[in-house]
Amino acid sequence: xxxxxxxxxxxxxxxxxxxNDTIFGAAGNDSLVGxxxxxxxxxxxxxxxxxxxxxxxxxxxxxxxxxxxxxxxNDFVGSIGGNDLMxxxxxxxxxxxGETIGGANKSTTLLGGLGDDVIIGGAGKDSVDxxxxxxxxxxxxxxxxxxxxxxSDFVFGxxxxxxxxGEFGSDFLAGGAGNDLIDxxxxxxIVSYGAAxxxxxxxxxxxxxxxxxxxxxxxxxxxxxxxxxxxxxxxTSNNYIIGLAGNDSLLGLDGSDFLxxxxGNDFLSGGSGSDFFSGGSGNNTLDGGEGFxxxxxxxxxxPVAANLTIGTxxxxxxxxxxxxxxxxxxxxxxxxxxxxxxxxxxGLAGNDFLSGLDGEDFLxxxxGNDILNGGAGDDWxxxxxxxxxxxGGLGDDxxxxxxGNNTLAGGGGADFLLGGAGNDxxxxxxxxxxxxxxxxxxxxxxxSIPGVTLSLTLAPGTTGLxxxxxxxxxxxxxxxxxxxxxxxxxxxxxxxxxxxxxIGVIQTLGNFSSTEIFSSFAVSPPPPPPQPLPPTPTPxxPPTPTPxxxxxxxxxxxxxxxxxxxx
Length: 567
Fold this sequence. Notes:
Layout: E1 2-5, E2 13-15, E3 21-24, E4 31-33, E5 40-42, E6 49-51, E7 58-61, E8 67-69, E9 76-79, E10 85-87, E11 94-97, E12 109-111, E13 118-120, E14 127-129, E15 136-138, E16 145-147, E17 154-156, E18 163-165, E19 172-174, E20 181-183, E21 190-192, E22 201-203, E23 208-210, E24 214-218, E25 222-224, E26 231-233, E27 240-242, E28 249-251, E29 258-260, E30 267-269, E31 276-278, E32 285-287, E33 294-296, E34 305-307, E35 312-314, E36 318-322, E37 326-328, E38 335-337, E39 344-346, E40 353-355, E41 362-364, E42 371-373, E43 380-382, E44 389-391, E45 398-400, E46 407-409, E47 416-418, E48 425-427, E49 437-439, E50 446-448, E51 453-454, E52 462-468, E53 471-475, E54 487-489, H1 514-520
Parallel strand pairs: 1-3, 2-4, 3-5, 4-6, 5-7, 6-8, 7-9, 8-10, 9-11, 10-12, 11-13, 12-14, 13-15, 14-16, 15-17, 16-18, 17-19, 18-20, 19-21, 20-24, 21-25, 22-26, 25-27, 26-28, 27-29, 28-30, 29-31, 30-32, 31-33, 32-36, 33-37, 34-38, 37-39, 38-40, 39-41, 40-42, 41-43, 42-44, 43-45, 44-46, ...
Antiparallel strand pairs: 22-23, 23-24, 34-35, 35-36, 52-53, 53-54
């Protein structure tokens, strides 16, 4: 390690070594070159040139108009004052200018270069370019020009009339106080007013935002509001709009939008497109508009009761649901009820009750012991984890129990019942279940078909039992052949060999009671049939949904290296 000092106040070229060097300039216009190692370069007064070279270097300059280049490595580059050019070059660099480390600054150009950089301007009119990588850029006071460059960047103008550009990548931009020009560039970019002290009015369709000044918005897709009562409107793109606190009005307009109300009594309108709503706490109005729209209570810590037929969801407040087709529950024991449209209902965690009612519905129980009722229509039911009770209702339904010990009832129609790995109980209506298929991958299972009598003669009102390859076939139409009006249990037999004379021909097995049938095929006697479906539970409370994740904390700003005493 070497300490190298300028001999006098004249212009001096000082060059380090391949080791860790400390080089001090003097009052003249000095050129300091660190070469290899972790070097520390002090420019002192004058218009200096500092080059760190290879390694993680520290470059500090005084009041002159200097050029500071970190070179390769993760460098710290700081300047007290002057019209400086500061460059991080390759590596994850930190560049700090002006009064943040003492003194005022006139105008500085700060270039991050390659890597994930932290750049903080000073009191003057700074020009900042993050370059490649994930950069964190702040202009501070005065009218700054800040460009994120390539990568997804955080760009903050702070005070002054700033010009902010996200460039390439999905960027986070906040103009601060003043009349700012904010251009997102390529990618999905968000403008944030989270630090605003007054309510804001933002309209992406017109490209104007007012509140902390008048901002011009270009190439912005997403909005973050303030803690006040904001009015936030999207455009024809797919917008993320976040109200935060306050009684906010969020309008998605065209596109498939994601609207998050936050705290307060909010009004959320999706417009055209298939939209996602999370109202948050308070008494909210959620208007889906056109398209297939979803209201989510994911992240709720207490039960939720949402009913699309009557258009309400109750909880920490009372939400008014208009034009909503789909619901996501929370982690509690939720009650979700559809309407006559095609509904997607997802219970997520908890012991949930889901009822599709009319229409072709998709019901997902999630974790917990759930009750799923498809209702009328051709429905798709999936119980998920837990011991679930699933009833397809009228229509040709697909019913999947999951890995628990499930009860699966097809209801009327040609249903497909798949039990999963647990010990499942199947129930089919013998008068309406023609064309149904049962498939199971494990466990000790039971089957009940009320409304039929087994008979060898296949008289009216009776059924026959036979085999088709590896499938067990229950002949409900008594014609002695396999067709769409039979009930088929697939993979019931281990092999295709047996007494069946040919594919499509049923060999009747004889007159058996239901107990004898279950015993003959090593199937447990059926448990009691499922109980009638419970009435819709009393509405419960929806909690505040979880908003989109907060942008990650930028890398910490390293402390200012101490300036050693003059030798």
